[in-house]
Structure formats: C-alpha cells, structure tokens
Amino acid sequence: MRHGDLGPDPLRACSRWLEDADARSNVVFPNAVCLSTVGRDGRPEGRIVLVKSVDERGIAFFTNYESAKGRALAHMPCAAITFYWHDLERQIRAKGEVTPLRTEESDAYFRTRSRGSQLGAWASDQSEALASRKALENRMREAKARFEGRDVQRPEHWGGYLLAPTEMEFWQARADRLHDRIAFWRSTAAALGTTATDEQWVVARLNP
Fold first, then answer.
1. Catalytic residue numbers?
2. pTM for the whole thing?
3. Of 74, 119, 95, 93, nearest in space to 189 by CA
4. What is the per-residue pLDDT for 22?
5. Mean pLDDT in each 10-residue stretch from start to end of the chain (208 residues)?
6. CATH superfamily assigned to domain 3-113+156-205
7. Domain boundaries, the chain
8. Which of 14, 91, 163, 187 could be disulfide-bonded to 171 (CB atoms 3.0-4.6 Å)?
9. Do the Cβ atoms of 82 and 92 come closer than 8 Å?
10. How many CA atoms lie less than 13 Å away from 90 in the CB half-sphere?
C-alpha cells in the first residue's frame, strides 16, 4: 500500500474501505468500531458502537447522551475510533473532537430505526443500575403503551455525535509483520518529514 492508493483525503479513503468491508458477505457488522473515551476519573474506556455514516465532516454514531460514553464526551469532547476487519486484515484508527449532530440529523436517523429500537431508547436508562430484567421489561411495556397507535418520537436524551478526525491511520497486514501503516494529520499538526496535501492533510508512512 502506497500513499497514492489512499488518495489525499483520509475520510474518503475510510469510506472506500468501509464499502469494501460491507461488500464482503463474510464480514459481520462492518461498521462496528471500538469507541474510546476518557471520563472524569481520567481513565480511558472503550466499547463497541456502530458507525452510521462517514462523510467530509467526519464519522457519525448515535447513542444515549446520558450513558457512560455520553457523560464522558460531555466532560472531555474528544475520542478515538478503531475499525478492524479481520478477514481483510485491515484497520483504521481515528481520533479527534466530538460534537453532537444537529437535531434534524438525529431525528432523521431515529426515524429509520425499527420501532422496537425506538421504544428501547425510551425504556432504557443506559448505563444506570437496573433492579431486575423485569423492571426493564415493565419500562418497555410502558413505552409501548405511551406510543400506541402513533409514531415514536426521539427522546431528547438520545441522538448523534460526529467525530471530526485530526489524525487517522490506515493499517494493512503484510508478510513477516512488515505491515503497511499510512498516517494522516491535519496540517496544523504536521510533523517534520511529512508531505502536505491539497486537502490540508499531511501524510507519512510509519514503521510497523
């Protein structure tokens, strides 16, 4: 893999790799990533979430704003995301600032979710202690009754985030563990020895 194989824009390259993974029938949940945040205790924490879009602005995902990751992002609005596709022997790492998506975007995505998932967003106080499974099922029944015969509205505590990368790295496995690693940085964070691109990204090959 050479710099030119990815092109000057790492977000476009990320979209292409995601499309490649999605086209492989043996890749389950190609849009699954490890999202890493840092909470008030200063300790990192990771969990798997599903990326719903990648565009020129960044990488979007959705969750409960009051969940553990939502609270961490409110405290420190930056994060790291890692894609890994075992069958393709590929990995992408990205990190940058995270901001909430516009209300209109969260509403639009919420409407695409299954009704059960929509109701679940009302039933679950994500990350909070739960007395029992029965208590959760009772809350689900309450949500079903509340919205019986009408569309489920998006809860204000649920919506999207956008990670705008300042750094991205593309990893492709190679023989003898001499893997390809191509890294991109925003030009303001340029390191010595890198080459500027037209998209205001700088790019370098890293040792495996």
1. 177
2. 0.90
3. 95
4. 94
5. 83 97 90 97 96 97 97 97 96 98 97 97 95 97 97 97 98 95 80 51 95
6. Electron Transport, Fmn-binding Protein; Chain A (2.30.110.10)
7. 3-113+156-205
8. 91
9. yes
10. 18
pLDDT value, residue 187: 79
Q: What is the DSSP string of the chain?
A: --HHHH-S-HHHHHHHHHHHHHH-TT-SSTTEEEEEEE-TTS-EEEEEEEEEEE-SS-EEEEEETTSHHHHHHHHS-EEEEEEEEGGGTEEEEEEEEEEEPPHHHHHHHHHHS-HHHHHHHHH--TTS--S-HHHHHHHHHHHHHHTTTSPPPPPTTEEEEEEEEEEEEEEE--GGG--EEEEEEEGGGPPTT-EE-TTSEEEEE---
